[in-house]
Structures are given as C-alpha cells and as structure tokens.
Amino acid sequence: MTQNTLSASTPVEPSRFETPLRMRVRVGLVLTLFGLFVFMVGAKPAWFGWDRSPVVGFVQIIVFLTGLG
After folding, report:
1. What is the CA radius of gyration of the chain?
2. Pick from 36, 39, 37, 43: which is nearest to 57 by CA?
3. What number is the average pLDDT over the span 36-65?
4. Can you say how many angstroms the Cα of residue 26 is from the centroid of all Cα atoms in its chain?
5. How remote is the C-alpha of 55 from its chain's centroid?
6. Which of 1, 15, 28, 40 is 20 to 30 A from 21 via CA?
7. In degrees to the nearest 10, what's the CA dihedral of 57, 62, 63, 66?
8. How far apart are CA 69 and CA 64, in angstroms?
9. pLDDT tens by residue, 18-42
10. Res. 17: pLDDT tops 60
11. Which letter, b or e, does each residue of 3-30 get, where b requires 16 or more Cβ atoms within 10 Å of its Cβ?
C-alpha cells in the first residue's frame, strides 16, 4: 500500500506556485493604476485638457467616485 502524501522534507518546485501569484500581482497593479487614472480625470480634468466648465459637474463627480471605488 503506497501513500501519496507530501512530508515536510519533500521539496516542492517553486515555479508551480510562482506564475499565478505574479499574474495576480500584475492584474492588481494594472487595476490600481487604472483606478488612479480615472480618479485623476475625475478630480482634475484640466490636467489632461478635458475640462469643459469651471464648475464641478455631475459627470465629473461620478468619474471621481468611480476612480475611488
């Protein structure tokens, strides 16, 4: 009868676990930077030349809050 369990001294190949973690970190960083960009567009659209009025509008508030989320 053979057992197929891993003991504490059994080496585990690290490359098997490294790829999903790196992909998860990359996706998290991309989403964070995208959220920062959306936040900046909502907060200061004049920085990008997209300011259409001197007052804060409804759409600007929605974009600002979406970037925060």
Report:
1. 23
2. 43
3. 84
4. 8
5. 30
6. 40
7. 160
8. 9
9. 578 888 999 999 999 999 998 888 8
10. no
11. eeeeeeeeeeeeeeeeeeeeeeeeeeee
pLDDT higher for 41 or 12?
A: 41
Q: Which residue is associated with the tokens 């996706």?
A: 27
Q: Residue 1's CB: how many other CB atoms inside 10 A?
A: 2
Query: Torsion over CA of 60, 67, 31 and 49, rounded to 10 degrees?
Result: 40
pTM over 0.85: no
Give yes or no for a contact between 32 and 3, defined as CB atoms under 8 angstroms apart.
no
- Which pLDDT belongs to residue 16? 58
User: Of 59, 60, 67, nearest to 38 (Cα)?
Assistant: 67
